Amino acid sequence: MTCYDRRDVGLLLLRLSTGGVLAAHGAQKLFGWFGGHGLVGTGQFMESVGFAPGKASATAAGVAEAGGGVLLALGLATPVAGASAAGAMAGAAALHVSNGFFAQEGGYEYAASLGLAAAGLAVTGPGRLSLDHLLGHIFDRNWMVPAALGVTAAATAAVIGARSRRLRETVVTEQEVLFEE
């Protein structure tokens, strides 16, 4: 008989809550569920804030959130699930950083909290109340943690960097138009 300790229960609660919220946000983007705008509406929004192409950006964010969230909740492939969700939340935080920290002002507080919780789960592991544990951790090896976080960090930095360049170019173009008038 296996005796689960409070660490296992705590990790289960953290996985279920973080994963559930992420999955719901991803479903808003992908399917328009829970008051979301689906791929078309989310893609248009993402294009308007500098993530291009918009529909591909919406798809990537939605898959990272929904897929990462479901996998985190299940405790399956935890390093990849946590890293992908953390990457999506880093992109969301970059979008909101100009509004300051607090979410009530449109800041990055909420995205950062979800992203850090997902990254923390990737590093800590899912606990014994998980599919990873049940399957002998075949998708949760120690080497997978730095690999998943490293690949996700590089991809996220590239996406956020491209957005920043696009936004700077837009400002320069708008200033040139104003100067010519």
TrEMBL record:
Signal peptide coordinates: 1-23
Entries under InterPro entries matching the protein: DoxX, DoxX-like_oxidoreductase
Transmembrane segments: 70-95, 143-162
Entry GO terms, CC: plasma membrane
Keyword vocabulary terms for this entry: Cell membrane, Membrane, Signal, Transmembrane, Transmembrane helix
Coiled-coil ranges from the UniProt annotation: none
Main localisation: membrane
Membrane topology: Multi-pass membrane protein
Keyword Transmembrane: yes
Locations listed in the record: Cell membrane
Similarity-based family: Belongs to the DoxX family.
Protein name: DoxX family protein
Protein's organism: Streptomyces seoulensis
